[in-house]
Amino acid sequence: GETELLPRLRAAADRARAHGAPDTLVVLADKLTPNDRLFRLGELAREAGIRDLLQATRPRLAPAAPVAPPP
At 69, is the secondary structure helix, strand, or coil? Predict the structure, then answer.
């Protein structure tokens, strides 16, 4: 839950800053992820000191090509 996530986000942001890396959270979500959950994650990231949030979507996997039966 959120009570476990916030300290983990803070620790990750601290590690990123200690190494000179940007404190950016990249979220890879699919279309089934509710927008309110993504919004809340962004709020938690800001509380943890993360300034940037990038949201990406997974590309749709192409269906496998049909296999022709042997002649």
Answer: coil
**pLDDT digit string, tens, across residues 15-67:** 988 999 888 889 988 888 899 999 999 999 999 999 898 988 766 676 666 67
DSSP-assigned beta bridge partners for residue 56 = 28
Entry pTM: 0.69
Q: How far is CA 21 from the centre of its chain?
A: 17
* Helices 2-18 + 35-47 axis angle, to 10: 50
* Residue 57, helix vs strand vs coil: strand
Task: Report CA-CA distances (Å) from 22 to 7, 25, 37.
Answer: 18, 9, 23
